[in-house]
Design brief:
CATH architecture of the largest domain: Orthogonal Bundle
Enzyme class: lyase
GO molecular function: peptidoglycan lytic transglycosylase activity
Helix content: 40-55%
Shape: globular
Family: In the N-terminal section; belongs to the bacterial solute-binding protein 3 family. Belongs to the bacterial solute-binding protein 3 family.
Strand order of the largest sheet: 4-1-5
Strand content: 5-15%
Number of helices: 21
Mean pLDDT: 83
CATH topology of the largest domain: Lysozyme
Low-confidence stretches: 1-30, 457-485
Keywords: Cell outer membrane, Cell wall biogenesis/degradation, Lyase, Membrane, Signal
CATH class of the largest domain: Mainly Alpha
Distance between the termini: 95 Å
Main location: membrane
């Protein structure tokens, strides 16, 4: 190269040097394309996540999930599509961000010291507690030093990091890290007795206990941990800053509503309740499933929701009679049965059809400014305690600064209907608000379990926005603006 330059006249060398210098300056002075600009040029926000009930999954009406909804909101703020990069584990989601396959990892990722060295994290979207899980009927370990064998966790997981920290004070603690299974698969292995223990976040544990009631919590492995979105480290903070602003702008009421939708009912049914449902699904439901399906088709509802209500009411026992005189699978009062043209409350088909008609009518009565799923949960509360009491508690929620269109706010005010200083101010008076709150939580849990067990698509989303052809008329022939149940 030196010889080549020597043969070129000096003024041409000087000219080439000047040109190269100008090009270098222009390239360094011109603004770089920011991550946000890249996202907008692409027309999509790429988010790495995992397929799980706490993050993202395909629900009856399409994609859903706690972190999915949050990420979708950010994409909508940017005016772009949400493009999901589905990976096998939180560790793989972090790797997708580090390698540029995704701009954000939103996969139930716990913030740990090691992870914080390699990535940056948003403000928390959840907080969870890492828990050691064992199988019901096995000896319960009381401390880390009791675990000398049989503990398996996912490789590169937050659980492995927590255990390494515990081993500093409990050298007897031993565990195995596997690359062949993630947290939910390991929970199933514990439930089946294939392994003795695993470690999982409390939200994942609570949801999986509905499906595998053998799972028990031995003790907390660490203090409460933040769950947050992960971003690549780098000079460009544009997307990170926007995401922080977006998450900070979500009101606590918005986040509470979202948390309630996905996690607010997960602990409603205990071990015995879950086992009983699993038994009745095989011994009782087959006799009535076709009836639930026909009622669902007739009234534009998911048959599994109607079945969940029936299970909460009677455990699918057509001869069930309560101390107050309600009867049948859907536990109709004699007055309600007359309004619904149910001649024999103990006839399964009549009871199921009447109950479905009633819940459909309640859903349609909820004001149009209430959207799903809140609309359905409010209707369930009315099914339990009467529509008049629902009107009362929604008004109490409004008076106390809550949002009467949101189930989480209405739910928190239901106990007030048992307190004289509150129910005396209402039109319809006393109601067993605690019972209605538990009722809705149980139905939601049973519905989720039935969706898990019967994954076939429903005849319609729950509920449909436009009343079906066979829905009851808009008049009020059932007089259900006042409590009748």
């Amino acid at each position: 190269m030196r010889e080549l330059v020597a043969r070129i006249p000096w003024w041409r060398v000087a000219g080439l040097t000047l040109a190269a210098t100008v090009l270098l300056l222009l390239s360094t002075c011109s603004p770089r394309v920011t991550t946000i600009e890249q996202v907008q040029q692409l027309g999509a926000l790429r988010v790495a996540t995992i397929n799980s009930p706490t993050t993202y999954y395909e629900g009856p009406a399409g994609p859903t999930g706690f972190e999915y909804e949050l990420a979708l909101g950010l994409a909508q703020n940017l005016g772009v599509e949400l493009e999901l990069v589905i990976v096998d584990s939180p560790a793989a989601a972090l790797q997708a961000v580090q390698t540029g396959r995704a701009q954000i990892a939103a996969a139930g990722i716990s913030v740990t010291p090691l992870r914080s060295q390699a990535l940056r994290f948003s403000r928390p979207v959840l907080t969870v507690v890492p828990q050691l899980i064992y199988r019901r009927g096995s000896p319960r370990p009381s401390k880390p030093a009791d675990i000398t064998e049989g503990l398996v966790v996912a490789q590169q997981s937050a659980a492995a990091e927590h255990l390494a920290k515990l081993k500093e004070t409990a050298p007897e603690l031993t565990w195995t890290e596997t690359a062949d299974a993630e947290t939910e698969e390991l929970l199933l292995q514990v439930a089946n007795g294939e392994i003795s223990y695993t470690v999982a976040p409390s939200d994942v544990v609570a949801i999986n206990q509905r499906y595998y009631p053998q799972l028990r919590v031995a003790f907390d492995v660490a203090e409460r941990q933040d769950v947050a979105w992960a971003f690549a480290n780098g000079a460009d903070n544009s997307l990170y800053n926007l995401a922080q602003h977006y998450l900070s702008g979500k009101s606590e009421a918005d986040l509470a509503r979202l948390r309630d939708r996905y996690f607010g009912h997960v602990e409603q049914v205990d071990y015995l309740g879950a086992v009983a449902l699993a038994t009745h699904v095989t011994t009782r439901l087959p006799k009535y499933r076709a009836m639930f399906e026909r009622a669902g088709e007739k009234f534009g509802m998911d048959w599994r929701l109607i079945a969940a209500i029936g299970y909460q009411e009677s455990h699918w026992d057509p001869s069930a009679v309560s101390p107050t005189g309600v009867r049948g699978i859907m536990q109709l009062t004699s007055e309600t049965a007359r309004f619904l043209d149910v001649a024999n409350r103990e006839d399964p088909a009549q009871s199921i059809n009447g109950g479905a008609r009633y819940i459909r009518r309640l859903i349609d009565l909820i004001p149009p400014d209430v959207t799903d799923p809140d609309r359905t949960w409010l209707a369930l509360a009315a099914y339990n305690m009467g529509y008049g009491h629902l009107i009362d508690v929604r008004e109490l929620a409004r008076q106390r600064g809550g949002d009467p269109t949101r189930w989480v706010d209405v739910r928190n005010n239901l106990p007030l209907l048992t307190q004289a200083r509150w129910y005396q101010k209402t039109k319809h008076g006393y109601a067993r608000g605690h019972e209605a709150r538990t009722y809705v939580g149980n139905v939601r849990t049973y519905y989720d379990m039935l969706v898990y067990l019967f994954g076939d698509p429903p005849q319609a989303p729950v509920p449909i926005e436009t009343p079906p052809e066979h829905a009851p008329p808009r008049e009020d022939p059932l007089n259900i603006r006042t409590p009748v149940l």
